[in-house]
UniProtKB/TrEMBL annotation:
This is Sugar ABC transporter permease. The lineage of its organism: Bacteria, Bacillati, Bacillota, Bacilli, Bacillales. Gene3D superfamilies: MetI-like. The chain crosses the membrane at residues 59-85, 106-127, 147-173, 194-214, 254-278. Pfam families: BPD_transp_1. Keywords: Membrane, Transmembrane, Transmembrane helix, Transport. Residues 60-275 form the ABC transmembrane type-1 domain. It comes from Cohnella fermenti.
């Protein structure tokens, strides 16, 4: 059994822990030609630069807002999907619905970005054609700060809701069926069974997924936004991940971008610990 763990442990060591040596860059004035060993050590100056950067606080606010929108609007949807699919009795219909809502997950963000750029285009896009037909004016959804966050949240939901529901569907399948039989004998209807048996039965899974989601609060969907945004929506669409990408690769400020990434990771770790502690205190359920 321990030998079976060995490949996984080696993978973690090589690809997760070994690269952490690069964290040193955040405390240096890193020079790509001299490397980590030859770069000047500057201590906490990169973090001081981060805390005094107006751009960083704008990016931090954008990240928090987009993540909170996704949690509030999208986190309950897979739970609702799992509960509703559990009530479907025709297996063919149930499997068809599951397949349809799972499929978007397997499309890359590059494809989805191109798809929605076409659909939302102000010139000939399907959505704007409908708006014009109803007497409105075309809207440039992807270049307007008023709408960009909404597009990000909607497309994230369209892609991932079905896939995220798998965890909750599996949790529902693990509930003892005798509870439903006993409830039915006692006169409980389908809706009452849903709220009194199914929902409490999957509550540990909901808590687990919610704690993990809180831990990634500062991960607002870098790949998604990177393929969809442009300089016109930096004010409302630029998040920590895209900011690190632009500063690190675009401006070659590797030390500063590493400091931003380290800050992001540290905050995520603290949020997971806090979320787990609160869950253990108030719900008597936790990851550890």
């Amino acid at each position: 059994m321990y030998l079976l763990l060995l490949p996984g442990l080696i993978f973690l060591l090589l690809f997760k822990y070994t690269p952490m040596y690069g964290i040193l860059i955040a405390f240096q004035d890193f020079n790509i030609f001299t490397g980590i060993s030859g770069s000047e050590w500057v201590g906490m100056s990169q973090f001081e630069k981060l805390l005094h950067s107006d751009d960083f606080f704008r990016v931090l606010i954008n990240t928090l807002l987009i993540s909170l929108y996704k949690i509030v609007l999208l986190f309950p949807v897979p739970i609702a999907v799992a509960l509703l699919l559990n009530e479907v009795r025709r297996m063919f219909f149930k499997r068809t619905i599951q397949t349809v809502i799972y499929l978007p997950h397997f499309l890359s963000w590059v494809i989805i970005s191109g798809l929605f750029v076409t659909i939302l285009s102000p010139t000939g896009g399907l959505v704007n054609e409908v708006i014009v037909a109803l007497g409105g004016h075309p809207i440039s959804f992807l270049t307007d700060n008023r709408f960009f966050r909404s597009v990000v949240v909607f497309t994230a939901g369209w892609k991932e809701v079905g896939w995220n529901a798998i965890v909750f569907i599996a949790a529902v399948a693990g509930i003892d069926q005798e509870q439903y039989e006993a409830a039915s004998i006692d006169g409980a209807g389908r809706i009452r069974q849903m709220f009194s048996i199914t929902l409490p039965g999957i509550m540990p899974t909901i808590v687990l997924m919610f704690i993990l989601r809180i831990g990634s609060l500062l991960e607002a969907g870098t790949e998604q936004i990177l393929t969809m945004y442009n300089p016109l929506v930096y004010d409302n669409g630029d998040v920590i991940g895209t900011y690190v990408y632009r500063m690190g690769l675009g401006q070659q400020d590797y030390s500063f971008s590493t400091a931003v990434g380290l800050f992001n990771s540290a905050v995520g770790f603290v949020l997971i610990v806090i979320g787990n502690a609160l869950s253990r205190k108030f719900l008597q359920r936790s990851i550890w």
